[in-house]
Design goal:
By secondary structure, this protein is of the alpha/beta class. The chain has eleven helices and twelve strands. About 50% of the residues are buried. The protein binds 5'-O-[(R)-(carboxyoxy)(hydroxy)phosphoryl]adenosine. The site of 5'-O-[(R)-(carboxyoxy)(hydroxy)phosphoryl]adenosine has 19 residues, from α5 and α6.
Length: about 350
């Protein structure tokens, strides 16, 4: 049978996502109410607006998802919901609604860790054996972890300051990229990736390699952000047709900045690979790396990780772009993985934890 059928709900940040998956991982229904365009106007996620939009969309997201799948709540065997980490008032909307559904329709609830879901999503499409190293790079996070089991993550590195997505978004905002018609409504990181492709001379801008001497797997993006702002400040500007101050070398700066971000992320990932090898975390010859999170959509950054991985005989994977960013599918998928592997974690209490770390 294709049972169990799981309904997944995601509201940890700024996307209201919902999906229904069967045991094989077929997507029977899927909805995503993205707030990206709204938050771009504020230069970052505004928590109160995020909460209000989740509140407005959560019921629609679930109903439309059921409608798409031609199923009713009676066909659902379990409800999975993101309980950690994320914005407290955003998480609350999804969790409250999941609890409400669970009570009315008498369905079990499965709590999901948002970052674990990002890492495991890659297994929906490709046969990626455990254990594996995972790099999760997004608008809210930046971490390296080793996935020993479906529910057993070992945190290797975290960011000491910002996340790469935040830094990309801020840089794009400072360059007024979004005011150019070709980038309107496009996430900051993606706009920078597109502009970088038009670069002529990216090597005119120098960037430091952060944490060069640190013998751990942590990240730091504040130095790159400062350098970026300094470069931008020191270049002569002209006013474009929109009245914005622009530097003529904007594409070169995007390429140089993207290269610096990629180098830092690849450098920290290389340390993590070495650590995994030294401590025999990989099992046998199989050395898998999974890259996910919104910034993993960046092909240049992904290819840099692939290069580093190949140097050590690792295979590097990422989910399709739609599943790299926040969505409900990965939440339902994570619950299915827990059920398949008979993980005790399905019975954990449904406790919201905005700052939950990954692993033990
Ligand atoms: O995972 P995600 O949807 O949610 C958050 O964690 O908020 O990631 C969104 C982030 C944004 O900061 C966006 O600028 C970044 O991912 N992003 C990219 C690209 N596409 C999205 N960054 C770099 N290159 C891209 N192509």
């Amino acid at each position: 049978s294709s049972s169990p059928i799981v309904l997944g709900i995601e509201t940890s940040c700024d996307d209201t996502g919902c999906a229904i998956l069967n045991r094989r991982g077929d997507i029977l229904g899927e909805t995503l109410f993205s707030q990206t365009v709204v938050h771009l106007r504020y230069g970052g996620v505004n928590p109160l607006i995020a909460r209000d939009m989740h509140r407005e969309n959560i019921e629609k997201a679930v109903f439309k998802c059921l409608e798409n799948s031609s199923l009713s709540m009676d066909n659902i065997d379990a409800i999975a919901v993101t309980v950690k980490p994320g914005l407290l008032i955003s998480l609350e909307i999804g969790v409250k609604y999941a609890k409400y559904l669970s009570k009315i329709y008498k369905k079990p609830l499965i709590p999901i860790h948002h970052m674990e879901a990002h890492a495991l999503a890659a297994r929906m499409f490709q046969d990626i054996q455990l254990p594996f190293l995972t790099l999760l790079i997004s608008g809210g996070n930046c971490l390296l972890a080793f996935v020993r089991e479906i529910d057993d993550f070992l945190l290797l590195g975290d960011t000491l300051d910002n996340s790469p997505g935040e830094v990309f978004d801020k840089a794009a905002r400072r360059m007024k990229l979004r005011n150019l018609p070709e980038y309107s409504g496009i996430a900051g990181g993606r706009a920078i990736e597109m502009a970088a492709k038009k670069a002529v001379d990216p090597f005119q801008f120098d960037f430091p390699l952060p944490l060069n001497r640190n013998r751990d797997c942590n990240f730091s993006f504040s130095g790159l952000q400062d350098s970026f702002l300094r470069h931008l400040l020191h270049k002569e500007k002209y006013h474009n047709i929109m009245g914005d101050e622009i530097i003529p070398e904007v594409n070169d700066l995007c390429a140089a900045f993207q290269l610096a971000m990629a180098e830092h992320i690849a450098h920290r990932t290389e340390r993590a690979i070495k650590y995994c090898e030294m401590t025999n975390l990989f099992r046998g010859d199989v050395k898998n790396i999974v890259v996910s999170g919104g910034v993993a959509c960046n092909d240049f950054i992904f290819k840099s990780i692939e290069c580093i991985g190949n140097k050590y005989g690792c295979k590097v994977f990422r989910p399709p772009p739609k599943l790299c960013t926040d969505n409900g599918v990965m939440i339902a998928w994570n619950a299915l993985e827990k059920l398949k592997h008979k993980s005790d974690s399905v019975n954990e209490p449904l406790e919201i934890n905005p700052t939950a770390p990954l692993g033990k």
